Structures are given as structure tokens and as C-alpha cells.
Amino acid sequence: MIATAMPQSKAPRSVLFMCGMNAIRSPMAEALARVALPKGTYVASAGVRQGERDPFVDVVLEEVGLTIGRHQPRTLEELEDDYFDLIVTLAPEAHHMALELTRSMAVDVVYWPTPDPTVATGTREQIVAAYRAVRDHLATLIASRLAVESQQKGSPPAA
To answer: What is the pTM of this model?
Structure first.
């Protein structure tokens, strides 16, 4: 099932972003959501399997004044907290795993198909452009689907 909008009318209190290796899409979404969602919202990210930190993520987040800090890719087993109001999956394998893990839990799982920028080829600028496209795609989804309530209350829109 591909969800196109939040099934609840208010912003979630805790969100987990999941992708394949927690190296690109989910940490990027985590950084974007931290500034777009209301203060006090717990935001985390994890991958289905262990990945390696990708330096292009730092490059494209820095362009919009964000950072993932000392983030190191982690798997679901490495998360400190395991309860979330919402799990946003960004890759098919993450979506399947989230549905399997939450079968008997009251948690919303939504799937936002997000391209993998590592498949981009060409010059450095062409590759960075693929990462920018993912960043902008995620920022748009977060602003339109998760941060709606906080924007209605006068908060600035997401980057």
C-alpha cells in the first residue's frame, strides 16, 4: 500500500524514517524533518542493513544549512527507542520490513518511493544533482505531508 497523506489530522510525536542502509535517504529525511516538524517531535532514522556514511549527503544538506552531524548509519536493532507514531519508508525493502515488524502494533506505516541517488553516473556535478533531487523531494514530502499542522499554526515551512 502506498499512502499519499498522513491518516491522522495532527503531526506525529515520533517519526522513524527507514531506507535500505541508513546512509542517504533516511538520514537526509531525519535532518529535514528535525527542522520542519514541531519542537519536541522525536525523529530518528534506521536502515534494513548496515551501510556506510555517504559524503554527498553532507554536501547537499550543507547547501541548505543543515547537517547530520556525527550520524553513523544504523540498523533497526541499534535504535535506542523502538516505539514510533509513524514509520516512513523510503525504499521497498524498508517498507516490507516495517510492515512485517508492525503487524501487531498500532503504528502508521507510509511508503514514500524515493530514488536511490547512488545509481547516478556522470560528472561530480551530475551526481550531486541526483542527491539534491532526493533532498528536495524529501523536503517537499515532509512539508506537505507531515508538517501541515505546524505550518497552520504559524511555523515557517520546511527548507
So the answer is: 0.86
* pLDDT tens-digit series, residues 63-75: 999 999 998 999 9
Helix (H, G, I), strand (E, B) or coil at 123: coil
Dmax of the chain from CA atoms? 47
The pLDDT score that the predictor gives to residue 32 is: 97
- b/e map of 7-30 (b: 16 or more CB within 10 Å)? eeeebbebbbbbbbbbbbbbbbbb
What does the alpha-carbon distance between residue 47 and residue 73 come to, in Å, rounded to a whole number? 7
| Confidence band for 9, pLDDT divided at 50, 70 and 90 | low
Strands 42-47 and 108-111, bridge-based pairing: unpaired
What pLDDT is stored for residue 31 in this prediction?
Answer: 97
**CATH class in words for 14-147:** alpha beta
Report whether 127 contacts 120 (CB < 8 A): yes
Each domain of the chain, given as residue ranges in start order, spans 14-147
Task: State how far the Cα of 12 lies from the Cα of 84, in Å rounded to an integer.
Answer: 9
